[in-house]
Amino acid sequence: MNSSVVITGLGFATSIGHSRAVVSQSLRSLTHGLSPWQPVADADLNVKVGGLLSGFDVSWSNPAAWSWPDEFEIEAHASRSMPPHGVYALAALQQAMKEARLSDVELRDGMTGLFCASAGSPKMLHQHLGKLESGGWRRAHPHGVISSVAGSLNFHLAAMLGIRGASCGFVSACSSGSHALGYAMDEIRLGRQQRMIVVAAEDLNAEVALPFTGMGALSAQSDPLLASRPFDCGRDGFVVTGGAAVLVLESAASAVARGVRVLARMLGWGQACDGHHVAMPHPDGRGVRDAMRMAMRDAGVTASEIGYVNAHATSTPAGDRAEARALREVFGDHAPPVSSTKALTGHGLSLAGAMEAAFCVLALNEGFIPGQAHLIEPDEDSTHLNLPRETLNQQPRLALNNSSGFGGSNVVHVLASADF
């Protein structure tokens, strides 16, 4: 069986908004969510900007002190054993399930699955191991494992939602959310599930951000307008963000039977590895090049049909350069409009691929193409790209969503408008 796959629900907890309407407006107006940030109080660090989430405070060691915007109904007992990003995920999940009109019966019928992407919570792991060590290794906190390890997100949400279909967590660094989405698509195409909920989320705290300083990967800028500049010749690294994004996928037949509105279609996906270096992309972007071609082949479309590319471009010199070269090889001198929305949000790590797929859904569904924010002067490898400085009020029918992670792991989705 090979079922057509559609998207029927979206949810957001991001630096540019916590609802579909606000996120869409931020993308249209190129309103960024970057703010001055001091990851560690009273420490003069070379990290001064972050993609912060307004209204959420999950900074406390005791989850009982966490808070979130009033519009989200999150019971304290539900979050007390979760990692901080679990709160973001619950907020985004409420929105997506409401839009997709998923009932408790459908969640628990064995034909709805759950795939999650996150790296776990370094903060909670450090906290619990620190207490264990200081206490003489004899008394471990009962939530020590389930609030910190990679996979904690799907552990909690599968139990909370009563999921009886497929449940799995994905950990492939910055490709994690995209892997979860691609494999969720396959579950439906193969007839194993009728519906899949894809949740991607990441903490935002010093424990997540500061290890990247050892790699020289983060921007040292203190001005949010200069800190995240994908494809710009003056870029100096990425800005970290956290949050959550949720997409509900289902077979077209299921959507029709349930009478729910189709927001967009997933036509295909591809993945390919650079086979080059643990932390640096291949200079010519051969992995993301191959993944783009595989995705389009899987979708049955050609490069000339693509109307928009949401690039992975994180604002690191090596990464943006490699992707720009790959885009030129795939599209030649006639590239479609390209932008990296990380200029607005910052880089969500495990969250990025799913969040940006959801941005593509908004663009396809509402008829706009996000411009390349904060671009002053493209570098020499990016001058051939079609990088609109402002949002375009035009309807793309096909979009590519690119993601790349450590080890040269590259994932690309092909998404289409609902009427494609």
Written account of the structure:
This protein has 420 residues and is α/β, with parallel strands linked by helices. It has a single domain, classed as 3-Layer(aba) Sandwich (Peroxisomal Thiolase, Chain A, domain 1). The chain has a ten-stranded mixed sheet, sandwiched between helices. A two-stranded antiparallel ribbon has the order 2-3. Helix 7 crosses helix 14 and helix 11 crosses helix 12. The model has no long low-confidence stretch (mean pLDDT 96).
Main traits of this protein?
420 residues, single chain, Peroxisomal Thiolase, Chain A, domain 1, 12 strands, ten-stranded mixed β-sheet
Question: With helices defined by DSSP (H or I, 4 residues minimum), what is the helix count?
Answer: 14
CATH architecture: 3-Layer(aba) Sandwich
Instruction: Name the shape in a single word.
Output: globular
Order of helices and strands: EHEEHHHEHHEHEHHEHEHEHEHHEE
Q: If you consult CATH, what is the topology? A: Peroxisomal Thiolase, Chain A, domain 1
Rg over alpha carbons:
20 Å
Portion of residues within helices:
25-40%
Stretches where pLDDT is under 50 for at least 5 consecutive residues are none
The biggest beta sheet reads:
10 strands, mixed
Question: How would you name the CATH homologous superfamily?
Answer: Thiolase/Chalcone synthase
Strand order of the largest sheet: 5-4-6-7-1-8-12-11-9-10
Tally of strands: 12
Distance separating the two termini: 21 Å
What's the number of structural domains?
1
CATH class group: Alpha Beta
Average predicted confidence as pLDDT: 96
**SS class:** alpha/beta
Strand proportion, as a percent range, falls in 15-25%
